[in-house]
Design goal:
This protein is an all-alpha fold. It contains three helices and no strands. Keywords: Membrane, Transmembrane, Transmembrane helix.
C-alpha cells in the first residue's frame, strides 16, 4: 500500500517536472514573459491565479480517479 502511494507520488511529481521542463525547452521566452507578467500582478491576483490552478488540479485528479486511474 505504501509502495503504491510512493509510486503514484513519484509519477505525479515526474509529470510536473516533465511539463515544466517541456515549457522551458520549447518556449523559454514565453515562460519568462509569463513570469514577468505575474510579477506585475497584485498579491491578491496572484493568489487568485494560484487558487484557480489548485482547483483545476483537483478537478483533474478527481476526473482521473473517476476514470479508474
Amino acid at each position: 500500500m505504501i509502495i503504491e502511494a510512493l509510486a503514484t507520488g513519484c509519477l505525479a511529481l515526474g509529470l510536473v517536472f516533465l511539463l515544466e521542463g517541456l515549457a522551458w525547452v520549447l518556449a523559454p521566452s514565453f515562460v519568462e514573459r509569463l513570469l514577468a507578467f505575474m510579477a506585475t500582478l497584485a498579491e491578491a491576483d496572484r493568489r487568485r491565479v494560484g487558487a484557480l490552478a489548485l482547483v483545476a488540479g483537483l478537478a483533474l485528479l478527481w476526473l482521473a480517479h473517476a476514470l479508474g486511474a
